[in-house]
Write a structure and sequence with these properties.
mainly alpha, 7 helices
Length: about 220
């Protein structure tokens, strides 16, 4: 009798372990980062190339709009909705915030390209619009960074680099400094690399592999 009970208990434990493994595999495969992160990376590459001067004149910024809206903005919205569906509140918040950033940035670029704020190269109104946008989002990302201190540290590092990039671009815009804008582009490429790392982690887990190290949170309690 004891042998039968032990066998039954072992089988039940094995079944529970199999069910847990299947649930974990399903969760890894249903990760909104699989869409949200690579689309974030693609938009960041376009922005970085513009800031370092790869795309030429300032008027070339409007060429980023198709990528920023139809790829990155839409991708962040999909990632946000997907995260909501899976009950991942923090992930939904992150993708929702960055959807707002990329889509509002697209509108700003369109406005500057079509002189909604006056001549983008000559008026204080155009410069003021850019500075207001950059300062507002800098504050928003700093708040996001502080709120992320209980998340794995790789996310905090990502948000810190985004804040640094915004600060450099804000200072470069205010001073008319292409050097500061260039270094803002370097900061964009730096957080893009973290985005690539996060995508590799999500894809590896979804394909049945192991997760990459994410680092301990800065606040653990």
């Amino acid at each position: 009798m004891t042998t039968v009970d032990e066998s039954t208990g072992a089988h039940a434990a094995e079944t529970r372990a199999d069910n847990t493994a299947a649930a974990e595999a399903a969760a890894a495969a249903a990760n909104p980062a699989l869409v949200g992160v690579p689309t974030f990376v693609i938009g960041s590459i376009a922005l970085g190339l513009y800031l370092v001067g790869f795309t030429g004149s300032s008027n070339a910024a409007i060429g980023m709009v198709p990528i920023l809206i139809m790829c990155t903005g839409v991708g962040q919205l999909i990632g946000c909705i997907w995260a909501i569906k899976t009950g991942s509140g923090p992930v939904a918040a992150i993708f929702g915030i960055f959807a707002g950033f990329w889509l509002s940035f697209s509108v700003l670029v369109l406005g500057l390209g079509h002189n909604w704020f006056g001549d983008a190269t000559a008026t204080a109104a155009a410069t003021g619009a850019q500075e207001t946008f950059l300062l507002t989002w800098l504050i928003g990302v700093v708040v996001l960074t502080l709120a992320s201190l209980r998340l794995p540290s790789v996310f905090t590092a990502l948000f810190v680099l985004v804040a640094i990039a915004l600060l450099l671009v804000l200072l470069g815009t205010a001073a008319g400094s292409t050097t500061l804008l260039f270094w803002g582009g370097i900061a964009v490429f730096a957080f893009t690399l973290i985005g690539v790392y996060l995508f590799f982690d999500a894809m590896s887990a979804a394909a049945g592999g192991g997760s990459l190290p994410m680092g301990p949170p800065l606040i653990k309690s």
